Amino acid sequence: MLARIEGWEGAFLALIQARARAPLHWGTHDCCLFAADVVLAVTGVDLGTPFRGRYKTPRGALGALRRFAGGGVAAAAEKIAERYAIREIPPLMARRGDVGLLPAVAAPGSGFDGALGVCVGATWAVAGTCGLDHVPLAAALRAWRIG
After folding, report:
1. Nearest Cα to Cα of residue 143 among 79, 85, 84, 98
2. What is the full per-residue pLDDT of the chain (147 aa) written as tens digits?
3. Which of 22, 24, 49, 51 gives the lowest tally of CB atoms within 10 Å of its CB?
4. Which residues pair with 99 in a beta bridge?
């Protein structure tokens, strides 16, 4: 079970601001590692360890996801949630710092079954090509309470 650490709000806001205009970069700032970075800032626990330094391309990311969970983004999120006893919640109940599974934003046929976003209030923030993209909370397929 993850718990939010003291001062998480400041760390959360600083990370969101730092990544607001950061372009997507596979293996360091993509949807999965952005979500993991936020969870790290909020809880002090790095859920991205199985993926860091393991890929540099979309194809490499898909391979890392398959090796880890046998599937895509959704399977990896489920495995991590189970491993850390992270409770699933209705997406509309998300609060700042929670993680959501959003419909795939990659090109059709890319192999990605979804994207991870982080609740920043009324929207999910997700790593996009030119910075963080914002998606309405209602667009999420699933969500998990972080701390």
Report:
1. 98
2. 799 999 999 999 999 999 999 999 999 999 999 999 999 999 999 999 999 999 999 999 999 999 999 999 999 999 999 999 999 999 999 999 999 999 986 655 677 899 999 999 999 999 999 999 999 999 999 999 999
3. 49
4. 118, 144
CATH top class, domain 8-144: alpha beta
Burial environment of residue 58 by CB neighbours within 10 A (0 to 12, 13 to 18, 19 or more): middle
Q: Where are the domains of the chain?
A: 8-144
Distance CA 136, CA 34 (A): 18
Beta bridge partners of 132: 127
pTM score of the predicted model? 0.95
Phi and psi at residue 45, in whole multiples of 5°?
A: -110, 130
